[in-house]
Amino acid sequence: MTQYETESAPSGWALGGVAFAAVLMTMLGTFEAIAGLAAILDDGFFVVGPEYTFAFDLTTWGWVHLTLGSTVAVSGAYLLAGRAWAGAVAIVLACLTAIANFFFLPYHPFWSITVIALACWVIWSLTRPGALRS
Known about the structure:
- The structure is a single chain.
- This protein has 134 residues and is mainly alpha-helical.
- It has 4 helices and no strands.
- It is 67% helix and 0% strand.
C-alpha cells in the first residue's frame, strides 16, 4: 500500500467542528424561527427603507424564516446525533439560510450578516476531510 491508499482516522478538529456546527445549527435555527414568528405576528417589528431592490412582504419572510429555521434546528439535532445523511442536508440548509439572510439584509442587517458568516462556517466545517465519516 502506498501512503495515498491508507485511510487515516478523522482528526479531532474535524469531529469537533462537526459537533460545534450541529450545536450552532440548532441554535441558529431556533433563533431564525423566533425571528420568523416576530415577522408574522408584528409587521412593524422590522423596518426597511424604500430603496431596496428586493422588497418582499414581511409576513412572507416570516413564514420563510419560521420554516427554514425549524428545519435547520431539526437538521442540527440529527447531525449532533450522528446521522450520516444529516451532513448533506445540513450543507444544503446552510446554503439556503445564507441566501435567505442575504435577501433579509435590509430588515435586520447585523443579524443577517452574522448568520451568513456562521452558515459559511458550518459549510466549511462539514466539508473538511474526514468530518462526516461514519
